[in-house]
Task: structure prediction
Amino acid sequence: MDWEALAGSWSNATVRLTHIHKRQGDEPLPVRSETDGGFFVLTTGEASELVISDTVHHIRGVYLLHGGPGALMSVRSASSDFRWTVLSYRALASSPTDLERLAQTYSYTPHAALPLQDKCQTVTSLWQGGDALSRLEAQAAFLSFVGEALRQGQTVAEHDSRPDPLSEAVRYIQRHYAEPITVETLTGVCGCSASYLSRLFRQQLGFGPIDYLIDVRIHKAKQQLLRSEARLHEIAASVGYADAYYFSRLFKKHTGCSPMQYRSEQRKAVQNNPLLSFGLSIESVHALSHNENEIYYQWTEEGETSMLGWKKPRIAAMLLLCTTLLLSACQGGSNTGGAANGAANGGASSSESEIESGVAATRTYKHLKGESEIPVKPERVVSLFHLGQLMALDVRPVGATTYVLDNPLLGDLSDIMDVGVPPSAEKILALDPDLIITTVPFMEIVEGGYEALSQIAPTVVVEQLNDPFLDVEMFGELLGKQDEAKAWKTAFEAKIASYKERLAPLVGPDETFSILNVRAKEIFIYGDGNMGGNIIYKLLGFKPPQKVKDEVINGETWQISREVIPDFIGDHLLLAVNEGAEEEMKEVEKLIQHTSAWKSGKVYEIDFDTFLPGDPIAIEKQLDIIADLLTEKK
Result:
């Protein structure tokens, strides 16, 4: 189905909502009936069978169906909790083609049920108001429902399986940040548990869902403070805070100044700096003052979701203007930014020599967002998530996000620019990269997404493989470092083999390992993803307890209650106790004292921050630590 064309036919049509029927409680199921107009059916409940024009739809949970005029509809069977809302309408099409499209029958399981249900409830509530004004508002709300239905239909068609819950949550926050949002709201949108969603956020972005929501709201508030004269309570309400005082305290906590101070200081900076009056941001000008060879630009906001796009016709003029202003201001400061200038010249020379020798300076690389022309030998890489993976291949990026720069196992990273979290497109631009590498989650939290990044430099979106061998192989191919990747793999395989031989006499063939993390108010059990689980279970081949295998590794359990801790503990226990969790640990200790791991003295304390990263360099060092811990306990 061509969803784009269908949306166009809806835009061309004159549509009128005519009737709403909502099945409640034990109301009898409808008999077979013929419709005189189009209709949407939104259902909830367990297994049911709904028939539209002799096509049987087997329904479980939330389901959306659409039928055209003359369709025969009936419910063959339904569970006791089966509920449905039927929105009937009539449409006058502008052409026979549009009429044919509007009459199509289609159905799907929504990838995000909550937005559809909310819009359906809004239409229903307004319609049931009965008065003319409410009915008029219901007509408008119905079109909003249709838009959401078509949008989700297109998404379902593009993805054979359910979209990633993390991506769904990020997109929902970006669209609905001004509305009340809780973790429970997000789990309703994504169809997963709260603990699982929180784990996805922390593993792939380094912070929780509510942290991201706050960051989006603060960012939107900054924009309004600079672009409008709105009062504090108006701005607070526009970003989801009913209490202006609470919003002000939160803003100061995250920015270091109050909202009104922020507005005053930023506007004063505009008055005192000629570059800002031409539309450049504060961050851009900060970069300009350090290096006249950077690239400068102006953003413009457009569209429903405030996606960022380029004002391309003005780029050349802005480049010339900025360079002129800077040269005038610097008065001979030609040494400024010499290192960056040298790097840029070195890159150009390399490309010229490659062309002269008949070797292409760029090549086509296929990735999650399609194909991109990338440098054969990139020299100025910005990597939003993968840092240790690049460093394992002796590639040192010029920029990375705060999250990966906090990795304590990667040594001195002071020469790598922190582009923030969410990543700042402005900071990335100032680095003049020739290649940007990102994952889907980090791409989506950049304002403007992939389009904004790819306007700066060739951008490659890669999978988060969470496997050191696969990671190194992938980046070896991406960065033209295949020889280095093979060398790393050979050396690491030799190290693993050596440790297996060393540890074999110390661990019985049937002994099991568990990994427990105690936090101030939460307790987590880890599987084979990180926190040493990938090393214990995958690289060294030790066994998990059956409960850990069934419910954690092969299930979605992560956060557990205190009383069930002993059920997950094996013969060996890796224990990470976070700062501030001392009191909680006292209670946990009472429970694990009776386990075999405690009784045999095989409880190994590990540092949470050290074992959180999963890049190749971190895993090598974690392997060393685990081997030493097991050897010391012999």
About this structure: Residues 97 and 630 are 72 Å apart (CA to CA).
